[in-house]
Amino acid sequence: MNDQTTRQTGFLMNVLVVGGGGREHALAWKIKQSPRAQKVFVAPGNAGTARDATNVDIAADDIPGLVAFAKENAIDLTIVGPEIPLVAGLVDALEAEGLRAFGPSKAAAELEGSKVFCKNLLRTADIPTANYQTFRTADEAGRYIKDRYTEPNDPVPVVIKADGLAAGKGVIVCETRTDALEAIDRIANQREFGEAGAELIIEEKLIGQEASVLAITDGETIITLPAAQDHKPAFDGDTGPNTGGMGAYCPTPIVDEEMMAKIEADVLVPVVHAMKRSRRPFKGVLYAGLMLTAAGPKVLEFNARFGDPECQPLLMRLKTDLLEVLDAAADGKLRELDGLEWDERPSICVVMASEGYPGSYEKGHAISGLDAADQVEGVKVFHAGTSMSEGKVVNSGGRVLGVTAMGSSISDAKLQAYKGVKQIRWQGAWCRKDISDKARLVETK
């Protein structure tokens, strides 16, 4: 039944969600609500997905294991959450066995897997982005900085990025020449981000507010989702090191209808056409990380999957059957959909993290108050870095939970989310206290 040629619209489906983070918990939770969802598996999952679906003890990057499971369990659609298996070619491996999958091919996922590839594509397609240079060695990059900035404390408004995947952490914003040279050393010499630092980019620092605009595409049709705003820096006031994301909210008032139309016309449509021209047709979630500058929106990066934590507040608001949408995208039939229906209420996700994140942290601390948090009006707790130990939910990752809430306004959604946060305890737990405050400032102007 899972061969594309024998698929019939409306049949019950066995679904496999690949990954074990908050994004995958949100995907499994939303897909489980579909009347067409028969069995929903998550590999490897976490303590939260074990409640809302069925966990499978297969790592997200174990491509042979995932393909074998999909064949043996008559999986009708595999939804790939994280970037690592996408870049490694999981979708290609599934489709080679006649199995249906939602997500880009290995070639298309290079849009996220290589920042150098992404920037070169943006330049070729004339899509607005920061000016940049690429380098293969620390010496080359260092000379570039030293030739342009002679004094150690001279202002050096640049951003230095590792080329490859670095779990959202391979981007260093610099203020001085000393900062820039240290960043180059960390990426290219110390290999703080592993092989992701084999190449690096130095680009101009853009000024403005960031926004995340995600779209679902089958390579021909694009369905744009409401704009969200992520909070990458670790601490309040956007200070501290970059993380995988400390919280997000949706929609963001800084992207109005006019701005969204410009983003679609100048960014999303051109990149889909450019990928098709380069014989890497993109199917899946196209995530544009944008800086809204005085000169208009410019691309910071592209991701090839749902953002985490943007996925959580987005799916809280989605009324349309998600499985129907992803099923149509996998078959190239998005044009047959009437569009998506959204709850008008905003939603906020607050990430609770382990002490020490994004650096080293301890695991195995028992978490209490999860049921109490879920009982707060409008709240759903999505698990990310959790597992079960001796019958208890414990922290097993840096970003542990995404406490997500809806409310009548952004202020109300924030209030409900932090009510949920206050119910939850474990040793060393912490979170940012200002998620969505930038939106509230826009609202009051």
From TrEMBL:
<dbReference type="Pfam" id="PF01071">
    <property type="entry name" value="GARS_A"/>
</dbReference>
<dbReference type="InterPro" id="IPR037123">
    <property type="entry name" value="PRibGlycinamide_synth_C_sf"/>
</dbReference>
<dbReference type="InterPro" id="IPR011054">
    <property type="entry name" value="Rudment_hybrid_motif"/>
</dbReference>
<dbReference type="InterPro" id="IPR020560">
    <property type="entry name" value="PRibGlycinamide_synth_C-dom"/>
</dbReference>
<protein>
    <recommendedName>
        <fullName>Phosphoribosylamine--glycine ligase</fullName>
        <ecNumber>6.3.4.13</ecNumber>
    </recommendedName>
</protein>
<dbReference type="InterPro" id="IPR020559">
    <property type="entry name" value="PRibGlycinamide_synth_CS"/>
</dbReference>
<dbReference type="InterPro" id="IPR016185">
    <property type="entry name" value="PreATP-grasp_dom_sf"/>
</dbReference>
<keyword id="KW-0067">ATP-binding</keyword>
<dbReference type="Pfam" id="PF02843">
    <property type="entry name" value="GARS_C"/>
</dbReference>
<dbReference type="InterPro" id="IPR013815">
    <property type="entry name" value="ATP_grasp_subdomain_1"/>
</dbReference>
<dbReference type="GO" id="GO:0046872">
    <property type="term" value="F:metal ion binding"/>
</dbReference>
<dbReference type="InterPro" id="IPR011761">
    <property type="entry name" value="ATP-grasp"/>
</dbReference>
<keyword id="KW-0436">Ligase</keyword>
<keyword id="KW-0547">Nucleotide-binding</keyword>
<keyword id="KW-0464">Manganese</keyword>
<dbReference type="GO" id="GO:0006189">
    <property type="term" value="P:'de novo' IMP biosynthetic process"/>
</dbReference>
<keyword id="KW-0658">Purine biosynthesis</keyword>
<dbReference type="GO" id="GO:0009113">
    <property type="term" value="P:purine nucleobase biosynthetic process"/>
</dbReference>
<dbReference type="GO" id="GO:0005524">
    <property type="term" value="F:ATP binding"/>
</dbReference>
<dbReference type="InterPro" id="IPR000115">
    <property type="entry name" value="PRibGlycinamide_synth"/>
</dbReference>
<dbReference type="GO" id="GO:0004637">
    <property type="term" value="F:phosphoribosylamine-glycine ligase activity"/>
</dbReference>
<keyword id="KW-0479">Metal-binding</keyword>
<dbReference type="Pfam" id="PF02844">
    <property type="entry name" value="GARS_N"/>
</dbReference>
<comment type="similarity">
    <text>Belongs to the GARS family.</text>
</comment>
<dbReference type="InterPro" id="IPR020562">
    <property type="entry name" value="PRibGlycinamide_synth_N"/>
</dbReference>
<dbReference type="InterPro" id="IPR020561">
    <property type="entry name" value="PRibGlycinamid_synth_ATP-grasp"/>
</dbReference>
<comment type="pathway">
    <text>Purine metabolism; IMP biosynthesis via de novo pathway; N(1)-(5-phospho-D-ribosyl)glycinamide from 5-phospho-alpha-D-ribose 1-diphosphate: step 2/2.</text>
</comment>
<feature type="domain" description="ATP-grasp">
    <location>
        <begin position="119"/>
        <end position="331"/>
    </location>
</feature>
